[in-house]
Amino acid sequence: TQGQVITCKAAVAWEPNKPLVIEDVQVAPPQAGEVRVKILFSALCHTDIYTWSGQDPEGLFPCILGHEAAGIVESVGEGVIEVQPGDHVIPCYLAECRECKFCKSGKTNLCGKIREATGAGVMFGDRKSRFSVNGKPIYHFMGTSTFSQYSVVHDVSIAKVDPKAPLEKICLLGCGVPTGLGAVWNAAKVEPGSVVAIFGLGTVGLAASEGAKAAGASRIIGIDIDSKKYERAKTFGVTEFVNPKDYEKPIQQVIIELTDGGVDYSFECIGNVSVMRAALECCHKGWGTSVIVGVAPAGKEISTRPFQLVTGRVWKGTAFGGFKTRTQVPWLVEKYMKKEIKVDEYVTHSLPFGEINNSFDLMHEGNCLRCVLDM
Ligand code: NAD
Ligand code: AHE
Ligand code: ZN
C-alpha cells in the first residue's frame, strides 16, 4: 500500500450535531514529513463532542473527528526518520518539533510549527487535506482525525511507544488521562499535604484526582452535579464529595467553609465559565491557584473581581497537562506498564467502530468515562 491511496472506513461529520456517517474514504499517501497510521483503537473525548456539536470556533465541516487513539505506522513520507512502518504509535494533537520558539523556550508544551495548519483542518506542507470522499476533500481535526481506519499525521505529532503496551488501553494516553495528571503535576505542581478541589469528575477530573493523590494531597474534594460520580471517584483518590445542587449558597462559599478559608489548588475539568469562576474563588487568599482545564464554547468569557488576584490567588490553564508529547507520551506509557498510573480503569465501555454514534450517547449518560472503539 506504500505510496498508494488507501480506501478505508472513516466516520465523517458532515454537519454539526448530525450523526456521523461511516463512509468509504480515500486516504492519500503521506507527503514529506508525514506519517500514515493504521488506527486500531480510538476513544471518544468530551472535546470531540464539543466540536461536533458546533460550539468550537475552530470547528470545520465536513471533517473526521477523533484525537485519543493508538495504532501502527503503515508508511512514512520523505524525510521521516523517527518512525518507520510497523512502529506502535500514539497520534498527538499537540506537536513537538523541538525547533520552534515555543519548543525551545522550556516554558511550554505548545509547539508553533504546524498549529495554524491543524487549526485550518489541513496538512502543513501543501495546506491540503489527505482525506476525500468521491473526490470531495474532508477536513482533518486537531491534526489527528482518528475516527478513520487510516489517518495521516505530521511526524512532529507522533509518539513512538513500547510495542508491548496494549493499544486498546494506551490510546487513552493521547488525551484525557495525561491532561488530568499533568494539570496537577506540571501546571499546579501540587505539594504533599495540599488541599485540592476538583470540579467535574469525568476522565480528566478523575485523572487530576489520581495525580493529586500521587502528589500527596491531604484532601481531595470532588465536585460534580451528578452524585453517582462519587463512589467511583473514591477509587481515584477523591476523599470528599460535594454536589452543588445540595446547597443554596454559591459553591465557592461551601468549599471555603469546608476548608478553613479555601483550597490550595483547584481544577476546572468541565468547560463551564461560571464553574471556572467558582474554582478560582474557592482558592485560599494569598496563594491558592486555580487551573482551567475544561474547554468552553465559542463566545464564552471568564470573569471575577480583580481583587481575587490582587489578594494572591493565581489563575492559569493547561493544554495536555503541560506534557511534551513526543518526549513524554512514551514515558507515560512506561509508567502505565510499571503500574504507576491507571489507564484500564478509565475504559468503561468498548464498541465496534461501526457503532460510533452510540458512544456519543454513552458519554452523555453519565456512567461512561471512556468508550474505546475497535477500529
Ligand atoms: P466529561 O464530560 O466526561 O466530564 C465532565 C464532568 O463534569 C461530568 O462528570 C459532569 O457530570 C460534570 N459537570 C458538568 N457540569 C457540571 C457543573 N456545573 N458542576 C459540576 N460538575 C459538572 O468530560 P472529560 O472528557 O473529562 O473532559 C472534561 C473537560 O476537559 C471538557 O471540557 C474537555 O473538552 C476538556 N479537556 C481539556 C483538555 C486540555 O488539554 N485542556 C484535554 C481534554 C479534555
Ligand atoms: N478549538 C477550541 C479550543 C480547543 C482547546 O482548547 N483544545 C485543547 C485540547 S482539548 C483536548 O481534549 C488544547 O489543548 N488546546 C491547545 C491548542 O493548541 O489547541 C477553540 O476554542 O478555538
Ligand atoms: Zn481530548
TrEMBL record:
CDD domains: alcohol_DH_class_III. Keywords: Cytoplasm, Metal-binding, NAD, Oxidoreductase, Zinc. SUPFAM superfamilies: GroES-like, NAD(P)-binding Rossmann-fold domains. The keyword Cytoplasm applies. Its main location: cytoplasm. It comes from the Eukaryota. Homodimer. This is S-(hydroxymethyl)glutathione dehydrogenase. It comes from Amborella trichopoda.
